[in-house]
Write a structure and sequence with these properties.
The complex is a heterodimer of chains A (116) and B (173). In chain A, 70% of the residues lie in helices and 0% in strands. Chain A contains six helices and no strands. Chain B is 77% helix and 0% strand. The longest helix of chain B has 25 residues. The chains are: A mainly alpha (116), B mainly alpha (173).
């Protein structure tokens, strides 16, 4: 149709597009919109209650998330500091492990775990 | 969109006004009978409300809606065929018996609709979505659930047929 447009063209063809648009565009647009909205009025249970149920689900989900968050924050305790561990008498092995310049021997680590 | 999901009817009205022309055109690309097409368009718009739950707001709304419309029109066409065993082509041809009483524009429109009706449904939708509604090949691929390369091929074949018709028309006028 338009000389510079080939069937392979990646761009929409404005001439063909306009012709098709004119051929397919229906009149009485306002009446159609009114008809769709009237159709909605006829089926309020079928449609709006579904939407309302989603809204309820959403509110429930938000409330549950808030509750869960509150519980988690309530149960959260700060991690013990190194001084707390040493002061609690975790044993000499713990003191050796954290104060030595060298990595602890595996037996020391295992012994520490056994004590606990 | 959020207001529509929250149950705001006015918001849904705005949505319908914004997309109704496109929705009706796409329905007419599948169903030649204007009443059938409008029924399918209405079904699709109302079904949209229920299907909104499946819509991913991160993606553009237009292609998603067009998929609903294409499916609604396809379903209606299939049911109609089963019920009446009536072909789409015969409906269109039956409506175009008296071109003299039509204006040139209307006559061209009718011939284009006839030409469209002779194309496979997927090809019709591909060219209308691309050249009329302005969707990309990738978007049309998602709408029709076909690979992008197939969309390009469908648009190519549809254009070739429709451009030939338009060229004939120009020679006649």
């Amino acid at each position: 149709m338009t000389p510079e447009f080939t069937p392979f063209d990646h761009r929409p063809d404005p001439v063909l597009g306009a012709a098709l648009r004119a051929a397919l565009t229906a009149d009485a647009e306002t009446a159609f919109v009114a008809r769709v909205l009237a159709g909605l009025q006829d089926r309020p249970q079928e449609y709006w209650e579904v939407l309302a149920s989603w809204a309820r689900t959403g509110i429930t989900a938000v409330a549950a998330a808030g509750l869960l968050g509150g519980l988690l924050i309530g149960n959260w305790t700060a991690p013990a500091s190194l001084d707390d561990v040493l002061a609690a008498g975790a044993g000499s092995s713990a003191r050796v492990m954290v104060s030595s310049d060298h990595p602890p021997d595996a037996s020391v680590v295992l012994a520490s775990a056994e004590v606990r | 969109m959020a207001r529509t999901i929250a149950g705001d009817r006015a918001a849904f009205g705005v949505l319908v006004e914004r997309y109704s022309a496109s929705v009706r055109r796409v329905a007419r690309a599948v169903l030649a009978d204007p009443d059938d097409a409008d029924d399918a368009a209405q079904d699709a718009l109302l079904a949209t409300l229920v299907k909104l739950r499946q819509y991913d707001p991160q993606r553009p709304f237009g292609p998603w809606l067009m998929r609903v419309v294409a499916n609604a029109a396809h379903d209606r066409r299939r049911r109609r065929k089963v019920r009446r065993t009536e072909s789409l082509d015969s409906t269109v041809v039956a409506g175009g018996l008296d071109p003299e009483v039509e204006t040139q524009r209307r006559a061209l429109g009718r011939r284009l609709r006839e030409a469209l009706a002779q194309l496979p449904e997927r090809r019709r939708l591909a060219v209308v979505l691309f050249d009329v509604e302005g969707y990309s090949h990738a978007e049309i691929g998602r709408i029709l659930s076909i690979p992008e390369g197939t969309v390009r091929s469908e648009v190519f074949h549809a254009r070739r047929a429709l451009r030939a018709l338009l060229a004939e028309w120009k020679e006649e006028v």
